[in-house]
Amino acid sequence: MPSISRRIAVLCFAAAIQFAPTVAAPSAFLDRHLDRRDNGTSGQFTSREAPYRRNVFFAGGEYAYNDVVKGNVKVDQIYVEQLIPTQGVTKPYPLVFMAGGGLSGATWLNTPDNRKGWASYFVEKGYAVHIIDYPSTGRSSKLPTRQTYSPTSVEVAEQYFTRPELYPNNYPQARLHSQWPGQGLRGDPDFDDWYASLLPLPPDNVYMEDATGAAVCALLEEIGSSYLIGHSFGGMMLFVIAERCPDLVQGLLGVEPYAVPFRSKSAPGNGSPSRAWGLTNTPVTYDPPVKDPTVDLKKSEVGADTAANVSCLLQAEPAKKLVNIAKVPVLIYTTEASVHIVFDHCIPAYLWQSGVNTEWVLLAERGIRGNGHFSFAEKNNLEIAEKVVEPFFILQSGPNGFKQKAKNVTLPRRDDIS
Q: Is residue 27 annotated as part of the catalytic site, yes or no?
């Protein structure tokens, strides 16, 4: 198995490198972008990222015959960007970040208004950070014949992600949103740059789960047991990966995972059927065993169905237990003003009844107010990282961590990545 140290490495001291410009940038351009963007081509740009060593490689994938090119091509691999602290890795387990649907791993690097993102925050804390692009998405190879759908419309982005407070009729808690940087509307430079980052995503969820699960588990085979952080669509992928390689997953951190059990539902009503296996569209292991989820997983409607808090479709009791996913501790957090506050409660409820060690954090109860669905990019993103996310890693890495207590052993440190 090739080691990461044999990969092509790019030394990247993002906070210090200066490029000498050959042509002076137009003043109007600089007036708009100076001290706001990073990774620009002008030496006058300012980066707020942490200094790190950067490695780029691909994980997973396989060769398959393609009718378009009349030959074999490699498919389903994932692009991996590895960021290593310049002072060396001091934390025992790496981090793997998975973006929401229609986004690349770049979403974790910095915020729309060029503040420090979670990648830099955790690099500075001594973690080996890995950000990925999903198969057939972003910088990962695309199948020539695979169809993709358009990214989220501007209208949906404004109403549900960046300025939901202007649309309180969509869901009652929307009026509490206050943390998006800038105006959050088209024409605002921060919004326009963020919206430009949205990508098409293959619409076949079964394909995406199969390909992503295989590729991320291949990545974990190389870098060792890691914490996985998933936002929205990436949050659903957490459960796919924990099912397939639980011994390589140290813990799951779900940033409002889009994994409502058995259906897509964000408002009162029945919703549309989805995730036949409960939290995923692909098979997971239950005890007693499940052969046909439409027959073997009995369902029960639980709770009132209101605009602020929809009902849940859970297992009928006695509930079957998730075998592999239950080997991994889970933390899920939900913000005060995201549309997910309407339905996220269904996810920890399903995990609890299925025997999974799960903590559900409501940010408002921790005094963290006003956030929407993209909390990791909002004005108080580092407060969330410090008060909610990192404490989970610290707890689970210590002697009282779930996996250590379950195995009664001290897991090996992963500080040898170079």
A: no
DSSP 23-36: SPPPHHHHHHHTTT
Q: Are 248 and 225 a contacting pair, CB within 8 Å?
A: yes
Task: Please list the residues that pair with 231 across neighbouring strands.
Answer: 255
Burial class (CB in 10 A: 0-12, 13-18, 19+), 320: buried
Query: CA–CA separation, 278 vs 315, rounded Å?
Result: 8
Structure-token match 């004005």, residue found: 379
Coil vs helix vs strand at 202: coil
Query: Which one of 232, 311, 354, 397 is the catalytic residue?
Result: 232
| Closest-CA residue to 356 (of 266, 258, 278) | 278
**Tens digit of each residue's pLDDT (9 = 90 or more) over 354-396:** 999 999 999 999 999 999 999 999 999 999 999 999 999 999 9
- Give me the percent of the chain exceeding a pLDDT of 70: 84
Cα gap 209→231, rounded to integer Å: 15
214, 54, 394, 380: CA torsion to nearest 10: -100
Strand partners, 83: 54, 129
| Residue 358 β-bridge partners | 330
Q: What are the DSSP calls for 92-161, one per residue?
A: SS-EEEEPPTT--GGGGTB-TTS-B-HHHHHHHTT--EEEEE-TTSTTS---TT---B----HHHHIIII
User: Is residue 5 pLDDT above 90, yes or no?
Assistant: no
